Amino acid sequence: LAGLTSFGAAQAADPLPSWNDGETKQAIISFVEKTTKEGASDFVPPEQRIATFDNDGNLWAEKPIYFQLLYVIDKVKELAPQHPEWKQQEPFASILNGDPKKALEGGKPALMQLVAATHSGMTGEEFQQSVKKWLATARHPETSKPYTEMIYQPMLELLSYLRANGYKTFIVSGGGIDFLRAFAETTYGIPPEQVVGSSLKAKYEMRGDKPAIVKLPEVDLIDDKAGKPVGIYQNIGRRPIFASGNSDGDFEMLQWTTAGRGPRFGLLLHHTDAEREWSYDRKSHVGQLNKALDVASKEGWTVVDMKNDWKVIFPWGDRQGTPRQ
Amino acid sequence: LAGLTSFGAAQAADPLPSWNDGETKQAIISFVEKTTKEGASDFVPPEQRIATFDNDGNLWAEKPIYFQLLYVIDKVKELAPQHPEWKQQEPFASILNGDPKKALEGGKPALMQLVAATHSGMTGEEFQQSVKKWLATARHPETSKPYTEMIYQPMLELLSYLRANGYKTFIVSGGGIDFLRAFAETTYGIPPEQVVGSSLKAKYEMRGDKPAIVKLPEVDLIDDKAGKPVGIYQNIGRRPIFASGNSDGDFEMLQWTTAGRGPRFGLLLHHTDAEREWSYDRKSHVGQLNKALDVASKEGWTVVDMKNDWKVIFPWGDRQGTPRQ
Ligand SMILES: [Ca+2]
Ligand SMILES: [Ca+2]
């Protein structure tokens, strides 16, 4: 019985079992311990323990392309019968011809047309239902897993570990806020009110005798790069003490977070594992990591080397099909 | 000892001691009990227990005028030496001549000029410091109490009661979000991330070698009337099941809240006590309550008759100077 108890204690002593022992894991644990130890000089009161996490390529994967774009593509196909004009009209025509890359050559205006056609004109509740329905059946083109299983096991443990230590965890993503809210609570344990993302404007109107919030085809906030600290300030109202991201889109969020007084932690995930996940950084179109990688050491940010720091990638295994050990 | 224990239990049995027994108090308690009793048909899972509260005239008083306007007036006077041109320039000139009523005759453009001059151009952190400093010394013109003591004791009890039952309490106010955030946590126990309010746009920039969020003189959201459900949707991401307000500015918030499926509660505070607080409704410039009062009964909203439903007004007593019983 005594042996059983001490085995239990040893298990409980590792809050991050999918992280390999080493400097990265140790840096995270030291930070959490020093900020939560009452009386310590680095103690942070619970209400100030705000931790923000980027989503794409940070909590879930982002290859071959942002999953939200795959939703847009599927949705354009689903809506096409109601829009015969799309056959002759870019960027829709290229999507329907199976050439999304060409569709996206139209840059931001093309993307905005696609977002407007698939993300607006319905109520917020209808949009979220549509996303939930898609997530229930769509599969990742390479692993054939649901997108909500393309999530990183070590990050799930980190979210739980922070919450167990009185941290409030937020998503701060360039992705659409309503898209994220459709799965963040069940997938990550992060409730809608703790999601910050890019957003469209919305209006309140009566639909018959029922009031509704209707999404408009007009951008409210692009929650990326310098938009991230702005989104955090407007939605959360205070500076995080812990921020985690994986690309140059997170540069300003990490910079603002770690420039504050007192203990601060910046975590930068570097995709280095071509076998178990994907390997990409400076030249990638999706999740480019260049400038932030250059300054990480000078800024005191902790860089996660996915290949060496992570024992497990996805909850079920890795990209090669090797099941979780 | 047994007597002591049952006395303790009896005390604990009244979660709203400053509310007189009657239909209003009973309606609140019945709602909270049925939504939190596991297995009951009206049970609501904790994560959906979202309660939103208007602030001015609902959590704290709003007479003779919105307290945030009194901050604006004091701030204009404080800043005047740096702006000699204000002596000849409306709406500033009238403020400096002690005639704020005339200054506000300029309507929305005048108000926006005053807000821009006093709420923008500094960092969010600097603005909040300024508000905190003001709240520490400014006094209500009639009661001579700090504004943060012009709060309603029965509403403090309601906030605590809801939170003790797993509700997450939010402020949803037409007032400025950063102004509210400067005192909501210490005064109401509502953290910055649970405050929704009117907001200015903001930008991220370097000030020397330090990054900062700077408030811009441009409106982002007017969180009033139809702006309230929009602000709730964008910031909280789901429909409340409990909403509380006191004026026509809360009409759409209550309408949207109570039109949802399942158990819903709309609470409308009617200022009926000219002696202990103020009495006003349909013709008041501040906190006008007209349309919402007309439909309250049809919509099933519970109207608080302040005079009859509240045993105590402020934590320290009432407007007459009668100390709290
Ligand atoms: Ca990312
Ligand atoms: Ca009000």
From TrEMBL, chains A, B:
Pfam families: HAD. It comes from the Bacteria. One of its GO terms (molecular function) is hydrolase activity. Keywords: Hydrolase, Magnesium, Metal-binding, Signal. Transmembrane segments: none annotated. This is Haloacid dehalogenase-like hydrolase. It comes from Microbulbifer marinus. The lineage of its organism: Bacteria, Pseudomonadati, Pseudomonadota, Gammaproteobacteria, Cellvibrionales.
